[in-house]
């Protein structure tokens, strides 16, 4: 059975998005082409950044209807990430807050994709 292992975000400028993700992921991409950049992630996943104008077939709508979540484990891990990312000057859509599932916050990448940091389910 095939298992999902590639997350693709449509972006305006892959080079600009690559710089943003280099900063928050603290790693280099495995692939850098004019229309596509790929970052290997832990657990066998890859994050792909595909130039929106070159996507085939073109998406029927544009908009953010989902999030990429970074689950971090450990005492105060979410708060530590919040302080780290705030220090990097990232744009926040939601400051550190407590929701039903625990502490969380949301930053936006250059295309407005929502990146949530939260704790794993216990």
Helix content: 10-25%
- Taken in chain order, the helices and strands follow as EHEEEEHEEE
Which sheet architecture does the biggest sheet show?
A: 4 strands, mixed
Tell me the total number of β-strands. 8
Helix vs. strand class: alpha/beta
Principal-axis shape: globular
Give the overall pLDDT as a whole number.
Answer: 93
Pfam family, one: Glyoxalase
InterPro entries: Glyas_Bleomycin-R_OHBP_Dase, Glyas_Fos-R_dOase_dom, Glyoxalase/dOase/EhpR, VOC_core
Protein name: Catechol 2,3-dioxygenase-like lactoylglutathione lyase family enzyme
Q: What's the arrangement of secondary structure elements?
A:
Blueprint: E1 6-11, H1 14-25, E2 31-32, E3 36-40, E4 46-51, E5 67-71, H2 77-87, E6 92-99, E7 102-108, E8 114-118
Essential attributes:
single chain, 122 residues, alpha/beta, 4-stranded mixed β-sheet, 2 helices, 36% strand
Overview in brief:
The chain is an alpha/beta fold and 122 residues long. It is 19% helix and 36% strand. This is Catechol 2,3-dioxygenase-like lactoylglutathione lyase family enzyme.
Structure description:
By secondary structure, the chain is α/β, with parallel strands linked by helices. It has two helices and eight strands, in the order E-H-E-E-E-E-H-E-E-E. It has a four-stranded mixed sheet with strand order 1-4-3-2, with helices on one face. Strands 5-8-7-6 form a four-stranded mixed sheet. The radius of gyration is 15 Å and the shape is globular. This is Catechol 2,3-dioxygenase-like lactoylglutathione lyase family enzyme. Residues 3-120 form the VOC domain. It comes from Rhizobium viscosum (Arthrobacter viscosus).
